[in-house]
Write a structure and sequence with these properties.
heterodimer; A: 116 residues; seven-stranded mixed sheet; four-stranded antiparallel sheet; B: mainly beta; six-stranded mixed sheet; five-stranded antiparallel sheet; 55% strand
């Protein structure tokens, strides 16, 4: 069964550094998402991406964040200047589009980002 | 915006008993309600979902019910097994807005 994949599984970085988290969505999916989950808390929406542009973004997704689909398979989340509070598990997800409705979202295994 | 409340935050049941987790939502335009299971250190996995044109959906030992009037939906797990132990998240969306998750319920099934 196709799955969303993410790399790396764990990233440690120093405060102020840039990080890029990578995702390969399921191949026939057209909607892509990034979520984050701070340890022990709920999953929080960051951004959705459709047709090569951001569809929605949350308040968390400020100017320090950006997303890109650099080629036909990868979907990336960049954090320009990491802060301690960016430490979290970052999940990528993807879904098909059925008519005008997005269908079920499938999550990747996550990247644990640790900012020191 | 949408607000999803989930209860209880923790739930312990004996193996073989049933478990019920409840969620309420605030946006009457919400029309899609998935449930995710997250085992420790792993990805959230979709286990069942329901759309607003359906009142109940069942898949083997799990079922979800939706009451649109009261704006609440529930996850029911029957004949619980130790491998059902995990954190369960409810979520909702309108189709034009992002998924909003509840805070999660940590289910422990005691053998």
């Amino acid at each position: 069964e196709p799955e969303v994949t993410q790399t790396p599984s764990h990233q440690v970085t120093q405060m102020g550094q840039e990080v890029i988290l990578r995702c390969v969505p399921i191949s026939n999916h057209l909607y892509f998402y990034w979520y984050r989950q701070i340890l022990g808390q709920k999953v929080e929406f960051l951004v959705s991406f459709y047709n090569n542009e951001i569809s929605e973004k949350s308040e968390i997704f400020d100017d320090q964040f950006s997303v890109e689909r650099p080629d036909g398979s990868n979907f990336t989340l960049k954090i320009r200047s990491t802060k301690l509070e960016d430490s979290a598990m970052y999940f990528c997800a993807s879904s098909e589009v059925g008519g005008r409705a997005r269908l079920e979202q499938y999550f990747g295994p996550g990247t644990r980002l640790t900012v020191t | 915006g949408e607000n999803v409340e989930q209860h209880p935050s923790t739930l312990s049941v004996q193996e073989g008993d049933s478990a019920v987790i409840k969620c309420t939502y605030s946006d009457s335009a919400s029309n899609y309600f998935p449930w995710y299971k997250q085992e420790l250190g792993k990805r959230p996995q979709l286990i069942i979902d329901i759309r607003s044109n359906v009142g109940e959906k069942k898949d083997q030992r799990i079922a979800v019910t939706l009451n649109k009037t009261a704006k609440h939906f529930s996850l029911h797990i029957t004949e619980t097994q130790p491998e059902d132990s995990a954190v369960y998240f409810c979520a909702s969306e309108t189709g034009n807005t992002p998924l909003v998750f509840g805070k999660g319920t940590r289910l422990s099934v005691i053998a």
